[in-house]
């Protein structure tokens, strides 16, 4: 509190030591800073307060202005927080969109490759079954013919022996054909497996690239969100 000076019947004078006053400036957060300044006291009537020139009393308008400033700061902080939440929500939605799009594209590619592989296997198996069935059908027909010839040529041994030899040759050819078809089928299956493995490796590489690109986008979005 500033000192109070009373009249003594003549002009009051203040010593230089009394001219150095400690003024207290209050701020909104109830902290105060003390400043030592040179002030010229103003002497008025009896029991008047000496107010330094540099000192300033807090008025109702100052307190109201301080309260308005606090409200403005609070609103500004709330708006800033809302902007951050909105930005994070937008980034999250973009990330979810990128992830869903990448998964959808990858799933479509995988489904197409698996379907193509299944179709190739089915075509190869159908072709093999068709050829093998044709050979077996011919074989069965040959056997039926042999039986008929055996019944007819029971009394003709030589002719039967010759026919038997011919039958053996034919059966050997059929067996050779079956072996060739079997070897060709195994070879085709091996080549198809190698081709499918290469396709799967290529797909894995594409998936790794897609994941790397997705991670890069995520990192870029995070960096943008931070800045």
From TrEMBL:
Residues 107-166 form a coiled coil. The keyword Coiled coil applies. GO terms for cellular component: synaptonemal complex. Residues 10-22 have a biased composition (Polar residues). The lineage of its organism: Eukaryota, Metazoa, Spiralia, Lophotrochozoa, Mollusca. This is XLR/SYCP3/FAM9 domain-containing protein. GO terms for biological process: meiotic cell cycle; spermatid development. Residues 1-22, 35-62 are annotated as: Disordered. It comes from Pomacea canaliculata. InterPro entries: XLR/SYCP3, XLR/SYCP3/FAM9_dom. Residues 86-217 form the XLR/SYCP3/FAM9 domain. Keywords: Coiled coil. Belongs to the XLR/SYCP3 family.
